[in-house]
Design a protein that fits this description.
- With 182 residues, the chain is mainly α.
- It is built from 10 helices and no strands.
- The protein has a domain of 86 residues.
- The chain is globular.
Length: 182
């Protein structure tokens, strides 16, 4: 059984799992998305006393906090206990694309030039993460949800605003990649 959890899963299996979770959430009248948890956590910590945006019934969103905690715990278990320590296989075309953008072959899931502590400590690395974080936070709020919420939940429930948001996410990501790294 452990081997099942430590091996890579096929795209069709993970897609089936994600769609099953979506059907369950839709059946119970809920929608997937993690960015709403910031509002819920802020509200339960008392932010609603000072800012009307946080003044809502946060207890109705406890299921989403449990979902968030489960994702964090599951990710931690997958990265530690269930880690097979096999090298990550990256397609040759992806390696070529990364090298064209000036990145070396990743030793993990992300390029070290962006996500290693040495890179974050540089001015460029800090600014990319800080400004990018602000844009993501503002964009998530302005768009009414994060990329995962719109792409998974919004598209699965056939919401036109989510389609527009996802198209915007892709265009913005492509533009920033080619502006920042060329």
């Amino acid at each position: 059984m452990t081997e099942f959890f430590t091996q890579s899963w096929s795209w069709w299996f993970t897609g089936l799992v994600i769609s099953s979770i979506m059907f369950i959430l839709l059946f119970f009248g809920q929608s997937f998305g993690f960015s709403a948890n910031l509002r819920t956590i802020s509200s339960c910590r008392g932010a609603g006393k000072n800012v009307s945006f946080f003044n809502f019934n946060w207890k109705s969103q406890l299921w989403n906090i449990v979902f968030l905690a489960g994702a964090i715990i599951g990710g931690t278990l997958a990265g530690t206990v269930l880690n097979s320590n096999e090298p990550i296989v990256i397609s040759p075309s992806t390696v070529s694309d990364l090298q064209e953008l000036g990145f070396s072959l990743p030793t993990g899931l992300q390029p070290d030039e962006l996500f290693a502590w040495e890179s974050v400590a540089t001015l460029k690395g800090f600014l990319i993460l800080a400004i990018g974080g602000l844009f993501i936070g503002f964009g998530s709020r302005y768009a009414g949800g994060c990329t995962s919420g719109h792409a998974i939940s919004g598209l699965s429930s056939l919401q036109i605003p989510s389609l527009i948001a996802v198209i915007g996410f892709f265009i913005g990501g492509l533009l920033m990649t080619h502006i920042l790294f060329l």
